[in-house]
Amino acid sequence: MLTATVDAFHTPAATHFNVGDVVTLKAGGPRMTVTYAGPVALNPGHWLICEWFDEHGELRREMFAPASVRAEPRSIPAGSVQSQRVGRAA
Q1: In degrees to the nearest 10, what's the CA dihedral of 46, 64, 57, 35?
Q2: Stated pTM of the model
């Protein structure tokens, strides 16, 4: 007789990400673009190198484990963008 058990704490394998995917950290943060996915020298395993612009408009780059990020849609719905109204001087 075959029996099956379910492990409630089983975590699925890390999602596979490709160059060009948009991700955010599971802990929160800006939207980032994956610019490299694969092995990195002197660091065992699979890594993502992501780029994004910080609040000052500076380009940033960092390496993350795939399990620490989640996929985001590539486009942003128009209703989610908030613009600041600039008043005109009289």
Answers
A1: 10
A2: 0.67
